[in-house]
Amino acid sequence: MKLVRFLANGTPRFGKLVRDIIVELDVPVSDWNPDNFSETGRSYDINAVRLLSPCLPSKIICLGLNYRSHAEEMNYPLPKKPIIFMKPSTSVIGTGDQIIYPPQSKRVDYEAELGVVIGRNAYRISAAEALDYVVGYTCANDVTARDKQPKEGQWTYAKSFDTFCPLGPVIETGIENPESFVVRGYLNGRQVQEAPTSDHYFSVAEIIEFVSGCMTLLPGDVILTGTPSGIGSLNPGDQFAVVIDRIGTLKNTIIRAD
C-alpha cells in the first residue's frame, strides 16, 4: 500500500494511492497498522489535491556515517555504535515544496536517504522484533548546512533549519526487507548518489533497537538511515530528487530566504 497525506478542501487527510486515485482512509492515531485502516468512502484524483509530507513526526532521528563510502568521503572513522542526531518537526516538508537556503549558511548540501516510519509505540525493542514496529518506508533528504556542522561542533544545528527534512511522496507499506532498496540522488537531473541499503553499516533493525533503548518512538516518527557517498552542494534554483524503487520520487527545489 502507498500511504499518502494530502490536502483536500483545506483539510489534511490520509489516503492510499491507487494509480492516480487517492482513496481516503481513517488512520488511527495510536496504531498505524494497515489492517486497522478503514476507507471513508471518499476518493480524489491525485491531480486535484496537494500532496503533503506523508507523516508529521514528533521527532526525526537521523543516522550519521551509516555508509562506509560516506564516512570515507567525510574523512571520519566508522562509528562503533550508531551516531544519532535529531531534526525538529518544523524541518519537515513534502514533495514539491521548496527548501529554503538560510542566510546563516554559505554551503547547503543534499543527502539522499531511506526514511523509516514507525507505526506504533516502540520502547526498548530488540532488533529481532524491531521491524514489527515499522509501518513503512519513504524517501528523505537530510539537507545540511555543511559549513555550520564543524563550526558549531555538533550536527543538530546544521541540520535543523526549517524545510531541511523533505519526506515523501508516499509511505510504502508491506516491505519485508528494508535492506533491499537502492537509494539514488539526482541534482538537476544528473545522478550524483547511488547505493543499496544492504550497504548500511547498521541495519534498520539494529538502529531501531539502539534508538528505542533511550526514547519512545511514536506512530509517525521517522528514522533517517544515513546517506551514501556523493554528497554535494545545493544552490538557489537547483532541483534535487531522491528516487527509491518501490517508493517513488521525492523532488524539491531550492530558493534563497527573503
Description:
There is one protein chain. The chain has 5 helices and 20 strands. Strands 1, 2, 3, 4, 5, 6, 7, 8, 11, 12, 14 and 17 form a 12-stranded mixed β-sheet that branches. It has a 5-stranded mixed β-sheet with strand order 9-20-19-15-16, with no helix packed on it. Strands 13-10-18 form a 3-stranded antiparallel β-sheet. It is 11% helix and 42% strand. It has 2 domains: 50 residues, SH3 type barrels; 197 residues, Fumarylacetoacetase-like, C-terminal domain (Fumarylacetoacetate hydrolase, domain 2). The chain has 258 residues and is mainly beta.
In short, what is this structure?
By secondary structure, this protein is mainly β. It folds into two domains: 2-51, SH3 type barrels; 60-256, Fumarylacetoacetate hydrolase, domain 2 (Alpha-Beta Complex).
